[in-house]
Task: structure prediction
Amino acid sequence: MGEVLSALTKGSSINTFLEQVTFQVLPMLIDLTIAIGYFLVVFDVYYALAVAIMTFFYLYSTVKIASWRGNMRRQMVNASRQEDAVK
Result:
């Protein structure tokens, strides 16, 4: 029974990942490409470069902070499991 639940959970995780990539990440990348292209054509190369650089730093910091919070969350969950095992 545990193997079936584990397989279902993993399948659900893959489904969630694919939905996020399809409906959140890809449209965001397309939007950024259009925005950078717009700034490149209408304004100047420097505006497009500024948008691209700020976007890169925003995404980089978001990934780093999410990873850091994920590690903290994982440690908290492991500590909680150990605490429950002691009881």
Summary: The mean pLDDT is 85. The two ends are 26 Å apart (CA to CA). The CA atoms of residues 5 and 11 lie 10 Å apart.
